[in-house]
Amino acid sequence: MLAAPLTRLVRDPHRRERLLLGTAAPALALLTAFVLIALVMAVTDQNPFRAFGLMFDYGTKADSQVWIINKAIPYYLSAVAVAIGFRMNLFNIGVDGQYQVGALIAAWLGGTLALTGIINIPLIILTAVLVSGLWAGIAGYLKATRGVSEVISTIMLNAIATGSLVGYLLKDGRLAELSGNIVHTPDLPDSSMFFTIDTGNGKVWGTVVIAVLAGVGYWFLIGRTRFGYDLRAVGHSDSAALASGANVKTMVISAMLLSGAAAGLVGMPILLNDSGNFGNNFPTGMGFTGIAIALLGRNHAVGMAFAALLWGFLERTGNHLDFEGYSKEIVGVMQGTIVLSVVIAYELVRRWGLRRQQSRVGAELAAAQAGRNGAGKNAPGENGPGKNDAAEVGQ
Questions:
Q1: Residues near 334 by Cβ (< 8 Å), separated by ≥ 6?
Q2: Cα atoms in the 13 Å half-sphere on the side-chain side of 178
Q3: How many Å apart are CA 351 and CA 140, to the nearest integer?
Q4: For residue 381, what pLDDT band results from cuts at 50, 70 and 90?
Q5: What is the pLDDT of the chain when averaged over all its residues?
Q6: How far apart (Å, rounded) are the C-alpha atoms in residues 84 and 263?
Q7: Where are the alpha helices (H) located in the chain, listed in sequence order?
Q8: Which residues pair with 196 in a beta bridge?
Q9: What is the pLDDT of residues 41-62, one digit of tens each?
Q10: Of 53, 133, 299, 392, which sits most exposed with the smallest number of CB within 10 A?
Q11: What is the spatial distance between Cα 374 and Cα 269, in angstroms, rounded to a whole number?
């Protein structure tokens, strides 16, 4: 099955170059990041080589790997939600508020109805997707009809969602109940909790299936459908998209609705595999982490998966470094340095690839021009062998 793609890769120099550019950027970014991190640690009198060794040893343990996979699931879903907007040149910075509103309403509905799991689980997921999508659609509508920047509108919607709406709905028993110091929605019945995969060293959340399906759906929708083509076309040029028959305003609204719908999945791993309710201790900030992971993975379905796992690895091993005498802030330094290195490395590789392409096209044009000039000299009726041959025939 792999023979044909590998044969095409070996024979086609353009495919080989694309593969080289695709792997050179993340490799350069990670190398640069680790060099900078090592310098920062060395300046602060901390041994970077010991730190990296501790991180590798602790992060490759079986229980750590399970923890990393579970942590990466919502991160990956968040990155997919952000990437949908990125592919259309839209910056959906409101994923954090979108998934919290969706998870809250879905958790309350699922806990209140307490239906059998085969009905309740799809209902919870569908509710989260619809609510989050509609919340994001507000920004899309304002962008399409009033020209309001989606950055501004999603920031404001984030503030409304996380700072006001969620707190209001959780307060005074409106959609929640008090349990100790935690205010949360009614607990989901046991039948409404998602399955887990017991590895013997911990349980992998079954919602990893949702993440895989979301990644495959994202890849297919963006790269294999007319909608995905129109979405990418609008991101590159509105006029070009119009020429191809795409309705720009409709695509803006559709992209934000779809991005918000994907954001609704972000809270599902926590809700269905961990907490079983939505409370004031529900994890926040995963939407902003998704932005970094989408950038790190270059909005590619597989690239974002590796980036999410890397992020989980850094968080897991970073907490361990704190117990080994290293500053706990070093994890934030690592994550920030990696993101900055990725942005810079991708731009450098992009420019290098563009110069390579321009040089190759110039060489091909020069060769074609030289070929035409040579053919012109040898044409019948002109100076050259063609004319001499005609003269010899006449003699």
A1: 33, 37, 314, 318
A2: 5
A3: 32
A4: low
A5: 87
A6: 10
A7: 3-11, 13-43, 48-59, 62-86, 95-113, 117-146, 150-160, 166-170, 208-224, 226-236, 238-243, 248-263, 268-270, 286-296, 301-323, 330-377, 385-394
A8: 205
A9: 888 888 888 999 999 999 999 9
A10: 392
A11: 68
- Phi then psi for residue 198, to 5 deg, are -80, 115
Q: Give pLDDT, residue 391.
A: 43
- Across 319-356, b (16+ Cβ under 10 Å) vs e yields ebbeeeebeeebbebbbebbbebbeebbeebeeebeee
Tokens representing 29 are 């970014």
> Pick from 339, 330, 335: which is nearest to 44 by CA?
330
Exposed/middle/buried for residue 84 (C-beta within 10 Å: 0-12, 13-18, 19+):
buried
* Contact between residue 60 and residue 268 where contact means Cβ atoms under 8 Å apart: no
The length of the chain is: 395
Residue 48 is encoded by which pair of tokens? 């970077």
CA distances for 345 relative to 28, 48, 55, 88, 122, angstroms: 6, 22, 24, 22, 42
- Give the Cα separation of 128 and 101 in Å (integer): 8
Which pair of structure tokens corresponds to residue 88? 């259309």
For 238-266, letters b (16+ CB in 10 Å) and e give beebeeeebebeebbbbbbbbbbbbbbbb
**What digits encode the pLDDT tens for the residues 68-127?**
999 999 999 999 999 999 999 999 999 999 999 999 999 999 999 989 999 999 999 999
Q: Which residues contact 141 (CB under 8 A, 6 or more apart)?
A: 253
